[in-house]
Amino acid sequence: MRAHPEHVPRQGRARSGRRPSEPEPGERSDGRVAAIIPAAGAGRRMGGRTPKQFLRLTTAPVLLVTVGHFARHPAVGSIVVVAPAAHIDRVARLVRSLARRLPVTVVPGGPERQDSVRCGLAAVPEAADIVLVHDAVRPFVSPALITAVIDAARRHGAAICALPVRETVKRVVDGYVESTVDRSALWAVQTPQAFRAALLREAHDKARRDAFRGTDEAMLVERLGHPVRVVPGSEENVKLTTPGDLRRARTLRRRRW
Ligand code: C5P
């Protein structure tokens, strides 16, 4: 599975100058970008008893590979990993080596992803003004993609990455086609997503007050009437959901950077 050149952002750090989200080479982040990694799901579609984020990608567990991308990104100053309550110690042990690079906090999650992200948000340091949210089960995120959403969130307040839908999409009811959806404006959304911290907090507070359930953070921000910028996602940035996804992922060579 190769990335489509059209849809993969170029490497964030252009030779001619640095991106606004990136410190000078060699300089560590000022701590103003925090990443929340929701990893508290049970992963039932994967089958088996071990949640999918703990399964090995090649040698390292999926979760560690994912968190590692953010720990090594120069703009990221702190990480909050949201873990299943029963696995807090296991996750803390897993990320211990990364915690030498930057503050990594492990907190228990909630029954649904949105609850888990809210738990993570409560642990984000006050100093962070941009918050990234990235699914633990997308271990092929690239540094360029992280940079792109941070930069877009700095400019626009809220940013997601997505790819245009290429398949024909139909609405199906009881095994029969009801209608064909016009796909020309449809995009399949990925993580990471990035937001100004105050905006994400406001969006989560409102969703909680209204008992609203969304499938991603952007949905909560959209409800505030705030525009959400879309940057090109990556075909490599797959979400591992089924055993087949994991098998395919194991055959992909992990990108090093
Ligand atoms: O279930 P789904 O595949 O949408 O999960 C996406 C991400 O959200 C996964 O990394 C999963 O561990 C996380 N999640 C969570 N808390 C939940 C459910 C899912 O942190 N209650």
Summarize the topology.
Blueprint: E1 33-38, H1 62-72, E2 78-83, H2 88-94, E3 104-108, H3 113-122, E4 130-133, H4 143-156, E5 158-164, E6 169-173, E7 176-181, E8 187-196, H5 197-209, H6 217-222, E9 229-232, H7 243-251
Parallel strand pairs: 1-2, 1-4, 2-3, 5-9
Antiparallel strand pairs: 4-8, 5-8, 6-7
The structure holds cytidine-5'-monophosphate.
Residues 38-41, 53, 82, 109-113, 116, 135-137, 241 line the site of cytidine-5'-monophosphate.
Overview of the molecule:
The protein has helices at 62-72, 88-94, 113-122, 143-156, 197-209, 217-222, 243-251; strands at residues 33-38, 78-83, 104-108, 130-133, 158-164, 169-173, 176-181, 187-196, 229-232. With 257 residues, the chain is α/β, with parallel strands linked by helices. It has one domain: Alpha-Beta Complex (Spore Coat Polysaccharide Biosynthesis Protein SpsA, Chain A), CATH 3.90.550. The strands form two sheets. A seven-stranded mixed beta sheet has the order 3-2-1-4-8-5-9, sandwiched between helices. The protein is globular. The protein starts with 32 loop residues before the first strand and ends in a 6-residue tail after the last helix. The relative contact order is 0.19. Mean pLDDT is 88; it is low at 1-17 and 23-27. The structure holds cytidine-5'-monophosphate. Cytidine-5'-monophosphate binds next to α3. Cytidine-5'-monophosphate binds at residues 38-41, 53, 82, 109-113, 116, 135-137, 241.
